[in-house]
Structures are given as structure tokens and as C-alpha cells.
Amino acid sequence: MHLQRNVALVFLALLLSPVSASACACCSNTGEYRSGAAELEEWQIEELRRVRFARVASLYLNEAGYDENAIGVDQPKETYSVSATWSGNVWKFTFRSGANVGTLELPLPKQMWTHNADLHDGKVSAGGGPSLYKEWRLEGEVKGNGIFKSGMTTPAKYMLVLQGRGNACDNPETFRNWRLEVRGENAKFAFFGKLGAARPLKQHHGSEMVVVQTAPDAAELTKLLNEFLAGASRNDPAMHDRFWAEDLIYTRSAGRRTTKAEIMRDLKSAPAPKPDDPKIVYTAEDIRIQQYGDTAIVAFRLVGTTETDGVRQVQHLLNSGTFLKRNGQWQVVNWQSTRMPRTEQENKTDVAATSDKFWRAFITADDKKFTAVTDENFVWTRGKKESTRKQVLDEMKGVRNGASVLTLPKETISLYGETAVVRGEGPYGNYTMTLVNQGGAWKIVALQSSN
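^ thats the sequence. predicted structure below, dont judge the formating
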């Protein structure tokens, strides 16, 4: 059903008395069933662009486990964070689990399969009549990189299904779940998850279609944001000076409020970066812009990727800023940063990865990677002997054995807010490891082992 016709009929239905079922544009009927493929129309593409994905995606697994359900996924995990963005008519899905990242590119096909069916389960839709089970299904060629690269050495295809319940009108508000399946000669895997609230509705006014709360300067603001994040990645004072207004109020994710003067002072007093300092890159995902004349609200998901001696840490924060246009120039007057909560499984995955890196660094005498995953006040208690991080590093220098094979320990992980306790059995007998989340990165602060 065409959206333009849907909207016109809905407004007409609001003006007329409901003297018969035919006066209801979105009412479904008992026994209704519609299923089939048709050419993907422009209004449907616009509706697809309104779809938002919840942050967590799960890898589909049956009793066969990873061996049969994760073919073409490097180092598969049960859960991932997921973000979806558009590049022209290509839907890009980025999946992350700790340092493991991969993107799947889904070009829109020429046709879309739709399905609407009365399940006869007594559920009633908001538009009147039974609540229909609904699907939108897209299928086509897929490209992938990162953790999906090995599965893309030969052609592969995708099937993306949006699932939900609702009345006879098709729109993103009725969809609640999704499933993405990829198959090819070297690929066989599927993800699933929940959908978030749809983006603002496009409405018709006369012959024109406009978006509620349009942002005429969206392109300029997006460009400014991306340029700032690139500058912030290299601590560029000039970019900070351009971005922040003199009357800025900035509330950091740690709960501390600061001003532009304080930000500029800290930048100018910071020591010159060293070649082996951690490298951090900031990028923006899911950018949302609402403009009200010379005022604009820009909200996005900030992704901070830190590389320290080959160890990658990724943190996610929700950022929102209020921009004012003064003398033809946009600047930020208010900024709020909030760290995004991670799922228990995501935290356990990162903790397990940190423990693994610790043992590998110690066994192979890699002092840089050992330093990257331990706190500066790290203490290792072996029996009655206590060793500081410096003492352990000195010990490692004297026993560089070049070992490359490590039997990974069996571990159990317990989480207590920003603290994690790992218990296991490894190269040094039974041990208990304590980690603390420091700005999104897990650091080992203490280790106690029987040997």
C-alpha cells in the first residue's frame, strides 16, 4: 500500500464518522493474507531509512555451535554491538565485539518481498481488526570486510528480514525484530536482534513531502562534526577553538563540568606526544540532527578506538550538543557526554580478551603488551611473594624465551559493576585476577596465584 495513499486515507478517516469498516484505511480483516514480491518503490526506501536497530545483535546458534553456524566469521562471539548506516542505497551494518570489527554492505535490491497474515490468535491491532504478522524481506549480493573478510572470498548473498505485528498499513513502527542471514560458498551465518524507535515520520503537505523537524544545515553540521573528531584525534587546538563557543558548558561522561577556557588550557599545557603513546581515533555513528532556525541539536554515538602496542580498545559514548549559528558560523554552546552501558556478555568478552592478552604477553615476554593491559599499581602475589608491575617487567626481561604456544587457562568470570574477578587454572596454578574498567578499557590491578 503506497504511503502517500495511506496518509491521505488516514486523515480522511479522522474527518468522517466510522459508519462502515471500509472507512478505516488501516483496518485489517479477519483471515487476511497477503504475500509476494514487488518492485521496491521510493516510498518504501524512505521508510527503510527510518528503521533503527537496537545496539545488541546475537549470532544465531543451534546445537551444532560455531562450527556450522559461524562459517566466514573470524573469532565468533555470541553477541555483538551493531550499528546501521546508509551510503546511497547501500545499507552498511557494522558489528563489534571488543577489538573484533567487521562491516557487511547490503545494496538495496530491485524488489522487496512483503508478508501480512492473520494468525487467528485473538490479538487486535491499533488500526482495528486482527493484529497481522508482518515481514519485509530484502535479498541480494553482500560484501564484507574485517571479521567477515574470510567468508567473502567467493560471492555471497544476504537476506534481511524485518518482523513485527500491526494493522494493514506498512510502516517501520510496526516492526520490532530483525534477522540478517548471509550464505555463500565460504559463508554461513546469521544475526538477529531488536529494532529501536523509528526515525521521524515523513509527512505530505500538498504535493511536497517534508520531514518533521528538518535540518537545512545538516550537511554543514555533519561536516563540522567529522572535522572536529578528526582534529580531536590528533589533539588539534585550532580545531577545538573553532568548534567550541566561548560560553561553552561541557558535561563530561565522568560527571565533571568544564568550559572552553579549561579545555584550551589543558591542550596547550599537554606534553608533546611520544611515538609510542596510545593512538586514539574518534568517529561518529548514528548522527541525528534537529534544527530550529539558528539553533541545532546534534546527537550521535561516539566511537573511540585506542591502539596501544597492538592492543585495541573500543569504547562507545552517547554525545549530544547544542549548536548556535552566530555571524554565519556554527559553534557548540552546550555538550553532554554519557558512557553507553555494555551488556554483561560484552563485558565478559572484553575481560576474557584482556586476561588472554596478559598471559600471552607474560609468556612471550612482551613488555609493551603486558603494560597495556595492567594498571600502573598492578601487584602479583605468588604464594608469599609480592611483585609490582616494574618487578614483573624486570623479571620478564631476564627470561625472554620467545615462546609462541600457550595453553589458555580455564576461567570463570564474575562482574561487580566496574570490577571483574577472573578465577582460573593456568600456567601458574590456580589464580584469581582482579580487573577494573578504566574509561571503557579493562585493566588488571591484582593477580594472586598458587605458584
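The chain has a mean pLDDT of 84.
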